[in-house]
Amino acid sequence: METLETLAATLGPRNCLTEPDDLAPYAVDWRGTWKGMPRAVLRPGSVEEVQAAVRVCAAQGLSIVPAGGRTGLCGGAVVPANGPPSVVMSLERLNRIRDVDARDFSLVAEAGCIIQNVQQAAAAADRFFPLSWGAQGSAMVGGALSTNAGGIRTLRWGNARDLVLGLEVVLPDGRVLNDLRRVRKDNSGYALRHLFLGGEGTLGVITAAALRLVPALKRVETAMVAVPSPDAALTLFSRVMESGAEVIAFELLIGRCMDIVQKNGIGLRVPLPLGSPWYVMVELAAAHPSVPLREMLEDTLATAAEAGEVTDAVLVENEQQRANLWRIREDWPDCARREAPVVNTDTSVPVSAVPRFLAEVEAALSSRWPEGRLIAIGHAGDGNIHVSLMAPNGTSREDWVARAREAEPIVNAIAVDLGGSFSAEHGIGQSKRHAMATHKDPVALDLMRAVKAAIDPAGLMNPGKVLP
User: Fold this and answer.
1) Do residues 210 and 181 make contact, with C-beta atoms less than 8 angstroms apart?
2) What SS3 state is found at 429?
3) What is the CA radius of gyration of the chain?
């Protein structure tokens, strides 16, 4: 194909992959659900090479699927199986930290930088980059920003878009939007970067970002707590928020999760006795080491225990214990995969509605699929609870997905009815386009289509994603 030869000449043959074995890793998503073979995988190493490759593709009508660490859960970085001829543009070689400015509390990273490396670069400057979730060791900046990733610290510092000061983006026609300024105030018209944050590569290719840093955390206290109910957990949340301490994480896990982690986790141990119906992981932090966080946490938990909101608790004593505790949360997806197939959701509701949401979901799913196991784990402090319906042991994934395919629409409808969203932090990709058609406001969809048509009139950027 002449276009591929031109791309190989532009990027070098080692960075225009066409052999089936080379394409295979880029042709399937992390869950193994979405599959589609690209015509080639492009690996540009500079913004100029991204521009050149985009211009070649645009001239030949070849669609582009941007990709980073490919840890997404909605098929957003995979070519649609029945879509137009497409290439995957992997940003893995754009992996430089361009600048760290400790006095400005900012950092400029290219799209292929792994999130954990950004965290380490910030730490080396005695600063902290708050974005954090289980895939941070392989997820990349471009993908995290394109999906507006969330994670365990959204409660305190917001999702990915809240940590972005500026962007560099290659547009569908090959032009570069250079908006890497690191100012906190800029009222000079539309905030264009927000079109690309959460845009999932449908409007352009993010190549670099100016990211906001915060002071390094000099004191951290973490606890795992057993609670009798989601309502008790929410009351505890109010108590820790009112304690005067900086709450940076508040995770809620159904007791069944702990059983599965204890059974399937490699090197994992639940630090509390099993048997509680619900558990909470709470973390407090301060930028100054003299802040009495432990006393604040102990006092809050003691008061909650007297009120019957806490039945047991353990506070970590060192960094190793803290890391082991958070591994329970981070390794949960792998533990679940070893147990049985699941139908997943990614919903959010107002924080105050979390107990009602869980009660309505449990009633709806148990009446329809009594053989299924309700899994609920997520960020109770920001209302993002990941509800899954797990198959009975011995059930194949294909069979369970066929039997329980309506579980996700049911959960989505409950969340939306409570004033929430059917997509909290994973994005839309291919998997939630049906939910967009069902639940997204029609006027909002019209505006999104108008933006797409204005910026990408040929529809070449990440086809088959986001818009129904």
Assistant:
1) yes
2) coil
3) 23
pLDDT number for residue 222: 97
Residue 181, SS3? coil
Whole-structure pTM over 0.90, yes or no?
Answer: yes
Question: What's the residue count for the chain?
Answer: 468
Phi-psi region of 305 (alpha: psi -120 to 50; beta: other; left: phi over 0): alpha
In the numeric block, the tokens 């910030």 are attached to 122
pLDDT tens, 392-417?
999 999 999 999 999 999 999 999 99
441-468 residue pLDDT tens: 999 999 999 999 999 999 999 999 999 9
Amino acid at 403: R
Beta-ladder partners of 86: 63
Residue 5, classed as helix, strand or coil, is helix
Q: Mark the ranges of the chain whose per-residue pLDDT is less than 50.
A: none
Q: Give the C-alpha separation, 119 to 130, whole Å.
A: 8
CA atoms within 13 A on the CB side of 286: 13
**Contact partners, residue 279, CB within 8 Å, separation at least 6:** 224, 225, 226, 227, 252, 253, 254, 255, 257, 258, 272
Query: Could you identify the residue written with the tokens 């508040």?
Result: 250
